[in-house]
Structure formats: C-alpha cells, structure tokens
Amino acid sequence: MNRVVITGAGTVNPLAQDVPGTFAALREGRSAIGALAFQDAERLSVRIGAQIRDWQAGLHFSTGEIALLDPFAQYAVVAARQAVTQSGLQFEGLLAEEAGVVLGTAGGGLQTSDESYRAVYQAGKNRVHPLVVPRLMHNAASAQVAIAFHLRGPNYTVASACASSNHAIGQAFHLVRSGAAPVMLAGGTDAMLCFGGVKAWEGLRVLSETGCRPFSKGRDGMVIGEGAAVFVLEALDHARARGAVVLAEVAGFAMNSDASDIVRPSVAGAARAMAGALRDARMSAAEVGYINAHGTGTTLNDRAEAAAILQVFGSDVPPVSSTKSMHGHLIGGAGAVELLAGLLALQQGIIAPTIGFVGADPDCALDVVPNVARAAKVKAVLSNAFAFGGLNAVLALKVV
Question: What does the pLDDT read at residue 336?
C-alpha cells in the first residue's frame, strides 16, 4: 500500500483564479458573494451568488476549444494545468499510460443545457449546436483534462451532488494507494450559476437572499458559487524519487450513506464518516488541528454537522470553519476548493475564518474561527462533504 501525497494544486473559483490568490483571499476573509450577472437574473427571487468575475476563456483556449468546452470544463482544465505545472510532472511514456483523472461534478455542462433549452423552447429553433452532448455530459471535464495531458490511465466522473469532489479525490487516493496508478489528477468542478440552475435551487427554498453565515445565529440559507480545483495525487515514493515538493499527505478517506432521507442530513452518518476517515488515516481525534466543515449555512446542515463533530471529538474539538461563507457553495466543486483551506492550514499555519458570523447558535457549539483568520500550528486536518441523498465523504490530510 502506497502512501499518497499531493504535489500540485490548481483552482479557478470566485475568490481567485489560482491558488496563491485563493490563499490570500482566505487569509483576508474576503467575500466573493455579490449580485448575479447573467441573462434573466432579474427574474429570480434570489439574486446573489459567488460568480467567477472577469473570466476570459480566450486567454486559455482557442476559439475551437471554447466551442467544445462548457464553463465547468474550462475551469477544470485550467485548474489542472496549474496543478500539473506546480507538480513538475511530464506525462509521457509509461507514466502517461498509467496516470489518470477522476473529477466530481453535480451538474455537468449545465450552462450548455440552459442555453440549448432557450434555443429550442424559447426561441423556437429546430436545431441545437452539434457539440451540445460533448459539452454537457458529466464526464466532459475529466475527458478534456485527460486529452490536455495525454493521460491514458483510469478516467471517470463522480456525480454525488455536494460530495462529488471528496468522492472523486477519495477514489483517486484509493487508486494510487493500491498501486493501480502512480499518479492521478483529482478534484471537482461545477458551473451552476445560470438562470435554470439557480431557479432549480430556488424551488428547494434553501437559498439565502442576504449572504452565507454558517453556524451563526440569524443564518437563513446557502449561497451558490461556481468553480473548480484539481490536485495531483502521487505515490510518495514516486514523488521522492523525482525530488518533488510535497504539499501534504492524503492520509485517509471514508464514505458512507445515511440511507434514511433524500434531503435531511443524519448526525450518525456524518459522525461515522469522520470517524472512518480517522481510522483509515490511523490518526487520533486529538491529532486533528482543523476541520473544514461542510457548513452550508442552512439550519439543518449546520446543526447536524456540529452535533456529529461533537460526537466524534467530544470535549477536545479543534477549530472548525466553513469557507462557503466566502466563496459560496460550489456544489460538485465544493470539496475540492475547500481542500485548499486544509492545505493553507498545513502549509502556512493559517486557519481560514467563517465570515459573516454575528453570534453563536447554541445548537452549534463550536469554535468556528469567526470572521478573522487565525494562526495555528496544524499537523492534520479533516475536510467534510455531505450531500443530498445522505452521501457522506471525509478526507484526512496531514503534513509529511
């Protein structure tokens, strides 16, 4: 069984279009939530979100490539380029044959779907663009990343709603740990900020019209974001043999199902996932210096997650924060972008804050690092993701 490490990270998200910019925003407690700007946004009841501003696809892709790439795939490919560049890997020969990609997404090419529905049902057109299917299919992003780097090993997409990224990274971790692949690119991506995407979420009545305030009194829901993060997962021996810089070790992973309710979270399921990740990492609860919470800002999620954390950690609960307060909920891309907060804590000793916090909810009795980032010596972190359908996935990272 190989030890598995991260040797590269890349991201495009509402806070920044690279990892250094994202780290800076997390340290500063900067919010990317603002007014939505896309066609028919004025018809929505909820008009705020965390959009990627000033995205210029033409700086990253040719005109022909843009025709093939929905924004969710664009974000993933650019994030993967950053990660591979940082890793220093050259994918050729046997490595290209064996290395692969696992990405998570919840919506796939939702903006392409939205535009196509408009063309057919609103504009009355009888044809759509011939590349609609390759743009909107859920596996488009993982396929495009593989094409970009000629990766001919394992390649698939995980679609498990808000747990998609953690599931994808966990699956890639298993492939590298077992020896099935020496290197995997893994992460997640989503781009749901279009009229149809937000309108669908409005129907659930879980969106806030004012902002995302996880674990805080007065919170009133989640805020949708968009973006991607991709990581290079590599066998430790492989990384050391080539003198790579190691960012962190993926020490453990656990996933399970509540099998009880399609939308209501389970305290027991979340607790079992966190405890399982600790067992898999052969790590005690006392070793964890930070938990990146799922922390959506909804009453049900925050209270259930807080109760689960208290159940696992007892009287020795480490600092907990939800960076969704800054970049919104990236749905299938959430866990991947939030893993960057774990890397920030491990690499720089900075715990990202939960901003927008106005007072404690007695049902969320946690140290949520309110509003201001905190310096701390952190050697291990957990990153939580809990999805509709009762799907739970938790990653454990540590310094090497």
Answer: 98
Residue with tokens 């997962």: 233
DSSP structure class, residue 207: B
Catalytic positions, written as ranges = 162, 294, 329
pTM higher than the cut 0.90? yes
CA atoms within 13 A on the CB side of 96: 10
Beta strands 183-190 and 100-104, pairing class? parallel
Exposure of 48 by Cβ count < 10 A (0-12 exposed, 13-18 middle, 19+ buried)?
buried
Q: 342, 290 in Cβ contact below 8 A?
A: yes
Residue for token pair 């309110």: 370
**pLDDT tier at 357, thresholds 50, 70, 90:** very high
Mark out the alpha helices in the chain (DSSP H runs). 19-28, 63-68, 71-87, 93-98, 110-117, 132-136, 140-149, 164-178, 195-204, 236-241, 267-280, 299-313, 324-327, 334-348
pLDDT score of 364: 97
- The CB density around residue 57, as the number of other CB atoms within 10 Å, is 15
